[in-house]
Here is the input.
Amino acid sequence: MNLAYYPGCSGLGTSREYERSTRAACAALGVKLTDIPDWSCCGSTPAHALEHALSGALSARNLVGAARAGCDTVATPCPSCLSNLKTARHRMADTAFRARVGRLLDQPADELAALPDVQSVLETLVTRVGLDAIRARVRQPLAGLRVAPYYGCIMTRPADVMRFDDPENPTSMDDLLTALGAEVVPFPYKVECCGASYGVTRRDIVARLSGRLLGAARDAGAHAVVVACPLCQMNLDLRQSQVEWPGGKAVDMPVFYFTQLLGRALGVPDAELGLEQLCVDPAIAFRRAAQVVAARQAEEAAQAAKAAAQAAKAAQAKQAAAANEGGRA
Amino acid sequence: MDVTNLESVRDEDFIHAVMEESGQDLTHCYQCGNCTAGCPCGFAYDIQVSQIMRNLQAGRKDKILNSRSIWLCLSCSSCTTRCPNNIDVARVMDVLRHIARREGRVAEKGVTTFWDAFLASVRKHGRVYELGVVANYVARTGRVWTDIDLLPRIAPKGKLSPMPHGIRGRDEIARIFQRYEEERTR
Ligand code: SF4
Ligand code: SF4
Ligand code: SF4
Ligand code: SF4
Here is the structure.
């Protein structure tokens, strides 16, 4: 089964570290990614908000490219690309829609009838590689790291198109992070929207919605939020300086791409994961994780010392008792 | 009191256009309000999404197409996911934007200006050039760039390309837009 790869435009810009860490983690796990030749933008929300056939054509050109390259599945890291590519393929079942899209494209319309399947890189990793195989390859477990997994609003919804995980309470990223040794905190806003690209036009909307997400992560005791979407990442990380923190209490909350933590756990050097390209310093999260581990070790040592002291005391008492017995005898 | 004669404003053609283009049966909505309860952007709406559904049933075209809500909708599909009658509400919102754009009615101009700048970039290069989109948006709205505070945060990260990444098939993409425009004006 040949896997085509659709990087998406933001991978060339604001989500470079997602792109780098995705490639590095896939390479470490032996997942071969074949870029769709000369891929083009899917048009994202601006296209589907204008017209569905236009959006369908911009997406379909890439799916046709993947099919011509001999691939039966396309993987993409970006949920927005994923949503557009999947929706286009889904709608192509309607012959009238297919004909309309065909009229907009250079490519012959009959190539639109059987387009490759589309999945997120997250789905590729948890289904093709599998959690057991990933767990077996962990070199540096994410011990002590408390994470809030944030899936974004469109990776699983609408359910009949996306067909992956639970639409309202997805768990695939939770399971992956747990397999890497991290501790997943209860996070009720897994699929609540962050405000999308309205940061540019209506900053108040992103400030409020992303602030709510970050506040929930803070209150759950997370050391970091983990995302799978370039736009979510930008809103939570770059725009963290603009958000309205619930209760007014701002903290520094690092926001990782899940592929960065995956790569780190697999032993990929930090330099290949683009950790230095995050805005909020990721070292904050690792330091806090190290504190948890240290506190746990200190606690364990104290417990062991206490147990040893108790054992010694018990032994002493036994000895004394034996001596007493002996004295009486 | 705001009294409206429903018959006088009921636009049957509009109701049919929305049903046809979205593939959704609007009569299935029984006004439970689930969509509104889960809508993350309701705080910024002038008409809540369940009220849009009700107004759609009543054919109140002007009220809906002149609303801000249809432009502020984040396309998050929460409404679609939670509708007990399986109405793809987010798709209905998308179709309302399509109709409003065709009629040149946009209550939140900033939003469509940004989208247009985005699509202009795709049309020109085949892929989105982020800095170009923002520059174009700022130029078109004539506003000062409100995100200037983010520059020192992002500039040192080496992520913003100084140049667009054009693709070989640029002309192919331009032709998609051209044919789309020709179809629209026909
Ligand atoms: S969703 Fe965004 S990143 Fe993905 S291709 Fe479309 S525009 Fe580019
Ligand atoms: S960026 Fe926001 S709108 Fe886009 S998927 Fe992420 S949560 Fe949804
Ligand atoms: S959730 Fe569905 S039925 Fe309920 S008000 Fe919204 S559209 Fe109508
Ligand atoms: S898709 Fe739009 S209307 Fe529906 S819940 Fe999301 S923001 Fe609200």
Observations:
- Chain B has a mean pLDDT of 93.
